[in-house]
Known about the structure:
Layout: H1 2-20, E1 27-29, E2 36-38, E3 57-59, E4 80-82, E5 103-105, E6 128-130, E7 149-151, E8 159-160, E9 173-175, E10 183-184, E11 194-196, E12 218-220, E13 243-245, E14 264-266, E15 274-275, E16 288-290, E17 298-299, E18 312-314, E19 336-338, E20 357-359, E21 381-383, E22 403-405, E23 427-429, E24 452-454, E25 460-461, H2 464-476, E26 487-489, H3 498-501, H4 503-582, H5 598-603, H6 619-642, H7 652-676, H8 692-698, H9 702-717, H10 737-745, H11 799-808
Parallel strand pairs: 2-3, 3-4, 4-5, 5-6, 6-7, 7-9, 8-10, 9-11, 11-12, 12-13, 13-14, 14-16, 15-17, 16-18, 18-19, 19-20, 20-21, 21-22, 22-23, 23-24, 25-26
Antiparallel strand pairs: 1-2
Helix pairs in contact: 6-9, 7-11
Amino acid sequence: MGSGKIFIILVINFFSNCRSYCPDKCECRLERAPWSVVCSHQELNEFPKKISGLSEVLDLSNNNLKNIPADIGRLRELKNINLSINELTKLPEEFENLWKLEQLDLSDNYFSNIGFIEVISSLPNLKHLTLKKNPLTSIQDLENSSVRYLDASECSISYLNNSSLIGFPNLMSLKLDKNPLKSIDNLSNQNLKWLDLSNCLLNFLHPNTFVNTPELEQLRMSNNPTLVYSSRKETLKHEKLKRLDVSKCNLDRPGLHGLPSLTHAILSHNTIRLLPDRIFSKNKKLTRLYLNNNGLTQVNQSSFVGLPELDILDLSNNNLKYLPWNLLRDNADLRLVNLSYNNINEMPKNFTTSVLIVDLSYNLIEYIPKESLSQMPALKILDLSKNRLESFTSGVESQTLQSLNLEGNRLTRLSNDSFAYLPSLDNINLSGNRLTEGISHSIFSFNDNLNTIILNDNPWRCDCAQLYSSYYYLTQSSKTASSSLICESPANVSGYSWSTACRSVWNRDRTEIRQSDRTYGLVVMGFLIAVLIFGSIVSVTHTFKEKRRQALLRLREAERAEARERLILHRRSQIEESRRQENIPRVHPEELIGPPTYEEAVQMPRLARSLETLDTISIEGIGQSAQSLDHETFNRKRRRQRKRVVKRTKSEDTLDSRTRDTQSSTRRVRNLSQSRRPSAASTRRVEPKRSDRNLDRRHPNESEASGVENNWERTLRSRPSSRKNKRLIKRDEHSSDDEDSDVLKNPTVSTRRGVDLDNIRVIELPREPRSGTYKPPVSPSLYTPSSPSLISSPEPCDTNQQISRSRFI
């Protein structure tokens, strides 16, 4: 932490010391790189003191310094020194200590001899040296191998030879303009690329003048009025020269055939009157050619043949009157042709070129043929301003033209199809013409991409009724600035804009239009309201009709359901009546899974035979019947496992109806049983006599009797509950269901065999409880003739038990 504080203190002291070294009348910029001291325009007579030794830039220009002290040698960090516009005549020897110096400006001083600045040769890193406006007559004895850019313009140098640049072997740019230079004799430098010899007094250049500067690329010799470098036999030669500026040199011919690598040629402001055929054929790489202000009167149709890469051609400010239609046919890459300020009076028909921009302004064109633009497939900008067009010919066609300038012509009116075949037109300038009537929007109806229309400086006659549609079209999408539309007549509105001159008339028209629009809107609104009301009435009527129809359908459906219920009840009553008449039991014995209740027993058919006839049943028959019954029970169980019985679910209405039927039938049975109940004497049974042998035969042991009981119980429980699985049994007219079932199952049992029924033991069958839980009986009891259990009065049956019983069945 202590070291950090020490570092901060040192930095603060350093900057404070630096500020203390800033001289008077100077500005020191030591807070950012590069550190600089600026003392320019301070009228200093002496070199400032206390300049920091860490300074990198020192500006002492525009002062009155006459000498530089030896103290400058301590400023070893200097990289840029500006000593221009002073009164210096000599540099001190200590100047050689500035070994980091890269830029030195000594322009506009009094250095008349190279010996006074010979110390420059000791600066190893000097790159830029400026000696402009010094009375130097030569730079031949000055040496520095590190200098790349040398400016010796506006000096007194009058001669250059092959040893003039020998002291600057790495020189790349040399500026010698505005010197009294008259001749150059075999200039030599292996690295020179840029040479400026403009505004000198050059007279004649030998063809091999620049041969010993093999890397020269740009040569500027403009404004040498007596310069001649080409004749009929010879011309200036150089293999790598790319840019040549010989404007304002009074040349009578281009003379470029000795420069095969030339890309830019500026030949403007000369006296070239004629361009022969294929005069530029050896300049295959030429891209920009400027021939303006030469007084050209004629160009041949093959003058520019052999320039496949030509991009810009400037022929402006000449005396051309006619252009051949195939003048630029072979220049495929041409982008701009400037033909302005000539004497062309008519555009050539079918002018063939791939140019993008054509400038024909300031000519004498009075007529534009329809076919003039048809062979310009890439044309985008056409400038016809300052010509003598009185009308724009209808039918001029171009699918690519985007900008059309017709400013300063003599147009008085425009037809509806003037621009109909210019679909890509984006902006048009019609200012400075003689248009008086408003422009109808139908004139530009085919120009969907038109965004700008310039119409200022036209003598508009403000007929407000006629101008309203034009004004609305021109200003609705900002195609024209409303302030540029100025009335010239009538006199009472001259100088006023359209909107100001016609405000009252247009407001009255708008009011009338608004009123008519309001009336029309009210009519339309009333019609819409009437349609809406009619639709609402129709919709409400339809809704009520639909609801009424649905109610009628529901009522009819309810009536049909009630009729079906009545029919079902009627059929059920007919079935019950037929059953009572035919004595058909309502409960079949096979439908039972346990001992029947009293109501079920009453509904079962009565025995057609007396109990005494049961004595003929043999014990063997009963055993066989039990075995067959057991076997049949087992088979039924297997069939029941294979086929799943789906219980039908009855609706509550069916259950309620059945409950009512059960209750009514129960009441009828009770009444019937009370009316037919026999006396006690007639119901007594006499216990049959049984011998031990018969007992042994029928019941050899107690397990057999119990087995019979169990088999009978299983048989009763395995009876199917579904009506589909009910077994249809043929009954005799005078037999009960139980007797017929026993006889059918045991055909060997018959009353004809004389079986003693007194020896048959009657087994009391166990009864399954109503809850479904089986509880075995305490002990089987045998019915005897004296036992009244068989005819005893049954206990009253609960209605809920009957309903559950009926559901179980």
